[in-house]
Write a structure and sequence with these properties.
There is one protein chain. With about 210 residues, this protein is of the alpha+beta class. It has a single domain, classed as Aminopeptidase, CATH 3.40.630. The protein has helices at about 15-25, 30-45, 80-90, 95-115, 140-155, 170-175; strands at about 5-10, 50-55, 60-70, 125-130, 160-165, 180-190, 195-205. The chain has a 7-stranded mixed sheet with strand order 1-2-3-4-5-7-6, with helices on both faces. β2 (about 50-55) and β3 (about 60-70) form a beta hairpin. The longest helix is centred in the middle third of the chain and has 22 residues, at about 95-115. The chain is globular and about 50 Å long. The two termini are about 35 Å apart.
Amino acid sequence: MDAVVIRDVVQTDMSAIKRIIGKTWGAGSEEESVAPLGLYLNQILYQTTFGRVAELNGEVVGVILGEVKTERPVYRMMQEDGMVHTLAMFKSSVEERQGFHDFITTTNENYKQLVADYKDEYQGVVTLLAVDADARGLNLGRKLWDSLVAHFKCHDVKKFYLSTDDIMSSFGFYDRVGCVKKNEHTITVEMEGEQVEVNSLMYEYEIE
């Protein structure tokens, strides 16, 4: 029988979390993607107040991160050295660096537009939820989700939101756990030299 453990995120989980995000993105080799994934994860950790991982037989295969607006963002202490990642980016081609910059900038602006008119209504936000593709179908996403909801409830969060897209997740999961679609937006980004339409959604969840 598979052994599943849901536990708090620790510093040594960062490499596994980046690997999971990279597989979700369909990123290139680990050597090529470690710097951009590190910068992306640093950005998320900056405001994170809650973090759990799912272990399957001792291996980290899932992660959920979130923010309670009244809590101190303790997980920013787990940020990696951004300068190291920035310098590593200069080993890539100009086109690769520009592509990463444009992707992150466009995605961030898109998410800001999605939530701009609504975010003040909420006491919390889910900043990342990802499960390794090889570990899906074991209900790990739901276990991580339930752990976040329980934490949020203990900290008087009545309603929270998340922004996601069809690169990072399957929208069906959020429908199944009871999220309600609040806003939707489609943007075009360049990925591997091609223009790709990305459908982004803002969901909200009300804690009973």
